[in-house]
Amino acid sequence: MSYDNEITIDFKDRDIVKILQNRPKITHKGIVDELAKRKVKLSRQSVQKRIKRLESDGVIKYAVLANDKKLGKEITVFILIELQTLIELGSYHDRQLDVHTQILSRMKELEIVEIHYVAGQEDILVKMRTRTIDTLRVNLVKISQMGGVARTRTLISLAFFEQNFPETEEEFLNALKVVVSERQEG
């Protein structure tokens, strides 16, 4: 399936994107060297042109990711929100939009970093980074008291793997051992 605004990229572009995902501050020369290790030959100018095109096409976007743990926000929580289904509350879309608007207007106060519309029993998924269980409890009460919210379900993250997720079972188990030992030490 192809979409009208879908961008087609070749394996060289995919390799460049993967390298940048793993090492966002790498130089163009560094990318050329990494590609050479993969038996892909490109000049620095060619890499530069490809990156500019990938940026202008919207394939590559940049963001600064703060280390929330260093900022004291060590608890990552996912909250599934189920909306009320009573007819008198208005249309489903209006309720979803209303709750979304309430959450958006209070994102900083509620320490929410992401909002997703989801399919399934629940309607909205939010990701929250918070300092303490007490803060989480207060924020959950605020969310559950928003008009149109039927119930919430909370999942607390015990470990996190970045976008360069371990590719083999052995790498995954080793990474998990590190997370467990860090938790035991902390």
Give a description of the structure.
The structure is a single chain. The chain has 186 residues and is α+β, with helices and mostly antiparallel strands. Among the domains are: 11-56; 75-156, Alpha-Beta Plaits. Helix content is 44%, strand content 16%. It has seven helices and four strands; from the N terminus they run αααβααββαβα. It has helices spanning 11-22, 28-37, 44-56, 92-105, 107-110, 133-144, 169-185; strands at 75-83, 112-117, 124-130, 149-156. The protein has a four-stranded antiparallel sheet with strand order 2-3-1-4. A hairpin with a 6-residue loop joins strand 2 and strand 3 (124-130). Helix 2 (28-37) packs across helix 3 (44-56). It is globular and about 60 Å long. The mean pLDDT is 83.
Largest sheet: 4 strands, antiparallel
CATH fourth-tier homologous superfamily of the domain at 75-156: Lrp/AsnC effector binding domain/regulation of amino acid metabolism (RAM) domain
The N- to C-terminal Cα distance equals: 47 Å
**In the CATH scheme, what's the topology name of the domain at 75-156?**
Alpha-Beta Plaits
Summarize model confidence as the mean pLDDT.
Answer: 83
Unreliable residue runs = none
Q: Kindly provide the name of the CATH class of the domain at 75-156.
A: Alpha Beta
Helices and strands, in order, run as HHHEHHEEHEH
